[in-house]
Amino acid sequence: MKALEFEGNSPGARYEYHRTREGPNFFVSYYKGSARGHIDPKECWRTLGVAKFTDSGKALKEWCLEMDEQYNKPNPVEEFRGSGRKDTSFASEVQDEEVSPTDNTKMIT
Questions:
Q1: Contact, 73 vs 25, CB < 8 A?
Q2: Which of 23, 22, 66 is nearest to 44 (CA)?
Q3: What letter would DSSP give residue 101?
Q4: Any residues with CB less than 8 A from the CB of 47 and at least 6 apart, and which?
Q5: Between these two residues, 76 and 5, which has the higher pLDDT value?
Q6: DSSP notation for 32-86
Q7: What mean pLDDT do residues 40-44 have?
Q8: Which residue(s) pair with 16 in the sheet?
Q9: pLDDT at 99 exceeding the cut of 90
Q10: Does position 61 have pLDDT exceeding 80, yes or no?
Q11: I need a surface site. Which of 32, 61, 86, 96 has the fewest CB within 10 A?
């Protein structure tokens, strides 16, 4: 895991972007005595509250979006779901038929 630090960090506010081999990349924000992890870059920027409209807040937003755009990798699970092979089992064939096998049955009394 490699941590990339925001160049405008100060003792009261610190932001890092963590790149990982497995799992999603994430941001860590240390602000007002609390530490939080974020996957969404906008959530990291929103920790500033009203201060997000200052010059340093705008620089943080640009940095967060840049890090996410540069290093964020697509989710491999989502890519795998669309690339599966067609289901050719008996159950899928029966479900595709318009006539159900139970339509032409009689009840024995």
A1: yes
A2: 66
A3: T
A4: 29, 31, 36, 38
A5: 5
A6: TTEEEEESSHHHHHHTTGGGGGSHHHHHHHHHHHHHHHHHPPPPHHHHHHTTPPP
A7: 89
A8: 5, 28
A9: no
A10: yes
A11: 86
In one-letter notation, the amino acid at residue 90 is F
Two tokens, residue 15: 């932001």
26-42 per-residue burial string, b: 16 or more CB within 10 A, e: under 16: bbbbbbeeeeeebeebe
Mean pLDDT for all residues in the chain: 81
What pLDDT, on the 0 to 100 scale, is given for residue 77? 59
Which one-letter amino acid corresponds to residue 88? T
104 HSE (CA, 13 A, CB side): 4
Dmax over CA atoms of the chain, in Å, equals 84
> Which amino acid is present at 53?
F
